[in-house]
Structures are given as structure tokens and as C-alpha cells.
Amino acid sequence: MKYVLSFFRFWYDFIVGDDWTVAVAVVTALALTALLAHFAGAWVVLPLSVLAFLGVSLRRASRRT
Amino acid sequence: MSGLFLFLAAFLASAVEMVEALTIVLAVGLTRGWRSALMGTGAALLVLAVVIVAFGPALGRIPLETLRLIVGGLLLIFGVQWWRKAILRSSGFKALHDEDATFLEETAAARAQGAVRGSGLDAYGFVLTFKSVLLEGLEVAFIVVTFGASAGQLGLAALGAGVALLTVLGAGLALHRPLNQVPENTLKFAVGLMLSSFGTFWAAEGAGAVWPGGDLSILGLLALYSLASWGFVNWLRREKVLRSSGQEVQA
How many folded domains does chain B comprise? Predict the structure, then answer.
């Protein structure tokens, strides 16, 4: 059981890292892109979301320090 | 053009991880003996090869759109973490990673474990190098396999990692010291930007979006994210200066 937990912890730290909200924001933005995929401008959603949530995450991190 | 970026991204990402692993291997080799350090490294590389051979070809059987959605999403999450840390380091909100300090810490820890007995295998040195090379190597494998599979150019991504291995090993052999001359945060910044750009492109495409200009959009994304990084770093630096001057006034 200990090994299974450390296996999952390793992959969680490896991919999700310090701020889990980044992972949630990416998944949400991708779901939104998929919903809007039939519109020509759907490609805008992901890069704009990335910049928005990165800004929020940086602001939070700078306030914690 | 995207082939060159793919090669560069695989090269830089692999080089950063390999410098970290080499620092620990050198620290263990110099303090506990090269036999256990090299055996630990060899065993970890063997496990890595098995993992890549077992999981690499399986990616080829997943439909390209699904693969790009999943892998692009993972690369984006992974890349944004690197990018975020690099911005925080550049603006002074996070300490720079110091390979010299890591080398000294690992050397002291290895010496504290007592003398190595005769010609037998030193378990401490073996386990430490095995663990470090395996963990850093898994990161390299993840980037190379996912990058290569999504772009349909696994060979090119593997070539980038191979050239990085030769470069880092060559530098390590020549210096016999941790590679503290490598501007690690600059490399991590570049890698974070590249992973995020490729990740955004592939994930949005996998979700059904159509990029104007096709593959050229990757360059546009790279330019947009680089410009945004410059803005974020300047904003955070100003924030830090304002906070420091506020604290001085209070004092």
C-alpha cells in the first residue's frame, strides 16, 4: 500500500506540482475549447486562459512569500 | 521549423534534468567511490530503458487527436509549472536553484554515512544515484516520449535527448564538478515556454480547435508567451520593490 501511495504521490508532484489550480484551470479551459470547437475562433480560449490563470497563480504566490 | 523547436525543446529539457542528476552522481562518486555511483546509474538507466520500451510504442496505438488532447494537456500543465517557477525565480520571489549548494549538501550527507568498506558495493551510494538518475530520467523520458509521439517525430525528440546526454556528460567529465556555469533558470524559462507553447497547440487541436496558420501558430504562441513573461517578471519585480520600500518605511 505504501508503494502504491508513493507511486501516485510521485506522479502527482511530477505533473501537478505546487499549484493544483493550474491543472484544474487547464482542464476547464480545454473543456470550454471543446464546447466551442465549431466556432472559428475557438483556438483563442486556451492561450488566453493560460495567461489569465498564470497571472492569478503568480499573484497568489507573490502574496504568500 | 517546428522540427527544430521540437529538437531544441527535447535538448534543453533533457539537459536541465541531466545536470541535476549528474550533480548527485558526481557528489556520490567523489565521496563514496565510483563503483557504487556508476552501478546505481547503470541500474537506473536499465529500468528507464524498460519503461520506455514498455510504454513508448503503446502511445503509437492511440488515435492522434486523442493523444494530442491528453499529451498536450499534460505538457501544458507540466510546462506552466516550469514557466511559473522560472518567473518567480527571475523576479526574486523564489530562490535560484544552486547546483554548487546541492553538490556540497550531497557530499556532506554522503560523508556523514561513514566509511565505505573494502571493495564491496556501497549500498548508500548505489541507492542515492539509482533514485536520482531514475527520477530525473523519468522526467526526460516523459518529455521525449510524449513530445515525439504527439509530433509523430519520436526519433528527432530522442536525438535531442541523446545530444543533451553527450553534452552534459562531456562537460561533467571535463569539469569533474557540478555544472554551476549552466544558467539553469534561463534554460528552465526557455523549456517552460516551449512546453507550454507546444502543449497549448496540441491540446487545443485535440479538443477540436483549428489554428490559423497551422504549425506556424506555435511560433505565435511562443512570441505571445515570451512577451507575457516579460510583463509578468517586470510586474512582480515592481511589486517586490514596493513591498521592500513599504517595509523600510514601517521600520
Answer: 1
